[in-house]
UniProtKB/TrEMBL annotation:
Protein name, per record: Neprosin PEP catalytic domain-containing protein
Entries under PROSITE patterns matching the protein: NEPROSIN_PEP_CD (PS52045)
Domain of life: Eukaryota
UniProt xrefs under Pfam families: Neprosin, Neprosin_AP
Domain Neprosin PEP catalytic: 201-457
PANTHER family: OS06G0474500 PROTEIN, PROTEIN, PUTATIVE (DUF239)-RELATED-RELATED
């Protein structure tokens, strides 16, 4: 600082001489007096500049330093926040990804871990800890009376992409789709990953349906065949699914549901492939239940089906139709709710102890499609996310999505046709539904639609 001031003062002397020698003096002033006055004025002015410059240097340096310190502090905090988030993600992954007895790489990029049955996520549930799974070979459920293995659905067990690798999981293990860091990062938070955003019946929630249902009795199961499509989903905040619902309780906070079908969900899976999925809740989607095996509860017993894995092939417009069979029913022997896929493939079960109302029976069964319209409250324009095939129900076979051979299970474990079917399309200009009945397909319906169109702006 001293050297800086000395340089300024030296410059001041030089500037003063130069300034005063070149200044035009008035006619009535003496030259010596004017020169002295000039020197005095110039020195005072330049001294002011020196002081101002010095003070500016003194006061500006700490400010610049403080700003840099704040930036560095904010940068450090951001790094610490990201490190903490990464540690939490890794801790969550270590919890839900169980040790693999064998690992299989799927052609679509999925990693399938073959996990020993007794180590699967189901047994992390407080009500199931310490229990062992009921293996199909030792204690199979009692199938409903009237069930026949005659439907041409899922004749081959290789209907998922990961099975195309030629690898399989050994007996005594179950195939589980591995959750990875990028999956968690797509979700709004770790705690919300794999869970529904809102209750399915919430008004204005953006959830839209084209469904058929029956209620007014005690239901112990439901069965149907449905064709599989790959509908377009506009963004990662939306999904499109087709499923069976087993429902009990009111549509308040005590709603119990069991759900199974196929879905396209970019947020959950990171792609637009249709995937076989399950879901359950015992408190209207608030805190319990989640998709697939992402939380404890569902006990898988099959070593050939990976829940959450992509389905292949799919149906094509005016081309081959590919369908799967689904049945969910309450086993009379133990009271658990079992899931069957295709023609006789037992996937696993939801223990009755998970539920409140469904511990006894359902009071509604429902079939059909659902989408999420994330644009409903923002732009005012309807989403172009498709339901089913993306075509309206009236277009019929080969073009529209369908459910056929709708059946229910009664209190005595009898499989019966549904005769009192009701239809609901809450946005019929966007997605609609029509029903029919014949000897080959029994009770059936077509459903779906393109979303945004001239009638659904």
């Amino acid at each position: 600082m001293q050297r800086y001031l000395e340089q300024i003062l030296s410059f001041t002397n030089i500037y003063t001489i130069f300034f005063c020698q070149n200044k035009k003096l008035g006619r009535h002033q003496k030259q010596s007096t004017n020169m002295a006055s000039c020197f005095s004025m110039a020195r005072v002015f330049l001294a002011f500049l020196v002081v101002a410059s010095s003070l500016g240097h003194v006061f500006s340096s700490p400010l610049l330093s403080d700003s840099g310190d704040r930036q560095r502090a904010n940068h450090t905090k951001e790094i610490q926040r990201l490190k903490l988030k990464l540690r939490r993600i890794n801790a969550y992954l270590n919890k839900i990804n169980k040790p693999a007895f064998k690992t299989i790489q799927s052609p679509d990029g999925d990693v399938i871990d073959c996990v020993l049955s007794h180590l699967q996520p189901a047994f992390d549930h407080p009500a199931l800890q310490g229990q062992k799974p009921h293996f199909v070979q030792e204690d199979p459920p009692e199938r409903p009376n009237g069930y026949k293995y005659t439907e041409a659905v899922a004749e081959s067990e290789s209907f998922q992409l990961w099975a195309d690798s030629g690898e399989s999981c050994p007996e005594g293990t179950v195939p589980i789709r591995r959750t990875r860091q990028k999956d968690i990062q797509r979700a709004s938070s770790i705690t919300r990953y794999g869970r529904r955003r809102v209750r399915r019946d919430s008004t204005g929630s953006g959830h839209e349906h084209a469904v058929a249902f029956e209620k007014g009795d005690e239901y112990y199961g439901a069965k149907a065949s449905l064709n599989v499509w790959a509908p377009r989903v506009c963004n990662e905040y939306e999904f499109s699914l087709s499923q069976i619902w087993i429902i009990s309780g009111s549509f308040g906070n005590d709603l119990n549901t069991i759900e199974a079908g196929w879905q396209v969900s970019p947020e959950l899976y990171g792609d637009n492939n249709p995937r076989f999925f399950t879901f359950w809740t015992t408190d209207a989607y608030r805190a319990t239940g989640c998709y697939n095996l992402l939380c404890s509860g569902f006990i898988q017993t099959n070593n050939k089906v990976a829940i959450g894995a992509a389905i292949s092939p799919t149906s094509s417009y005016n081309g081959r139709q590919f369908e799967i069979g689904l049945m969910v029913w309450k086993d009379p022997k133990h009271g658990n709710w079992w899931l069957e896929l295709g023609s006789g493939i037992l996937v696993g079960y939801w223990p009755a102890i998970l539920f409140s109302h469904l511990r006894s029976h359902a009071n509604m069964i429902q079939f059909g499609g659902e989408i999420v319209n994330s644009r409903s409250s923002s732009s005012g324009l309807h989403t172009s996310t498709q339901m089913g095939s993306g075509h309206f129900a009236q277009q019929g076979f080969g073009k529209a999505a369908y459910f056929r051979n709708l059946q229910r299970v009664d209190w005595d474990n009898n499989l019966l046709p549904i005769t009192n079917l009701r239809l609901l399309a809450d946005h019929s200009n966007c997605y609609d539904i029509t029903q029919g009945r014949n000897n080959l397909w029994g009770t059936y319906f077509y459903y779906g639609g393109p979303g945004r169109n001239v009638r659904c702006p």
